[in-house]
Specification:
Order of helices and strands: EHEHHEHEHEEEEHH
Distance between the termini: 11 Å
Strand content: 15-25%
Structural class: alpha/beta
Shape: globular
Helix content: 40-55%
Oligomer: single chain
Number of strands: 8
Length: 198
């Protein structure tokens, strides 16, 4: 059933590694969700680490996770496209962010397009995207998109993007990703319930 190909709305999932709410990482993730959704029909979904962190912090095995967290993991694994946005903590992503992805099946993200983003206190952490995030998702054999988006505290006002340079870079990153996202849209397999309705 899952071998039938069609054009359908993309399952677009964003994971924000921010542990607080409001969160600059979540605001950046939501902005990118909106940008992509304005270009391609999507079913957007945002996962905020701060909302599930208490549930995953003490788990060693996936079987120990509550159903609500298991559903979020499945959303990431079944997504057509991922957005990942994380704050920088001591030069890298947070431990809980990594812990979440430790539970993802290592084959689930193969060839999945992933748009990388990060937020930090200053420009000195901007290499986190290439030095930390790309290697993580290279392990998963995902297709990290060419342009990453890094934002500093000065790029936000009341947790909303205010920097024109950041807004332009985010738009450029999405525009350059569109051919790959459109390919994902045209080759995405039908889910079982969609096949039955087709």
């Amino acid at each position: 059933m899952s071998t039938i190909k069609t054009t359908r709305p993309l399952s677009l999932v964003a994971v924000s590694g921010g542990l607080q709410r409001p969160s600059k990482s979540a605001a950046l993730a939501e902005h990118l969700l909106d940008l992509i959704s304005s270009e391609i029909p999507c079913q957007p979904h945002l996962i905020e680490m701060g909302q599930i962190a208490p549930e995953i912090a003490g788990a060693v095995w996936r079987s120990q996770l509550p159903d609500a967290v298991a559903q979020q993991l499945e959303a990431v694994e079944k997504a057509d496209v991922l957005i990942v946005a994380t704050p920088v903590f001591r030069g890298s992503y947070t431990g809980l962010f990594k812990h979440f992805f430790d539970f993802i099946d290592q084959d689930a993200l193969i060839d999945k397009p992933i748009l990388l983003a990060a937020t930090g206190g200053s420009e000195r952490h901007s290499l986190v995207i290439d030095h930390q995030l790309r290697p993580l998702f290279s392990f998963f054999q995902a297709r990290t998109l060419p342009l990453g988006i890094y934002a500093t505290d000065q790029d936000f006002a009341s947790y909303r993007l205010q920097s024109e340079a950041l807004i332009e870079r985010a738009s450029l990153a999405v525009q350059r990703a569109l051919p790959l996202l459109q390919l994902a849209q045209h080759t995405a397999p039908l889910q079982a319930e969609e096949w039955l309705a087709a």
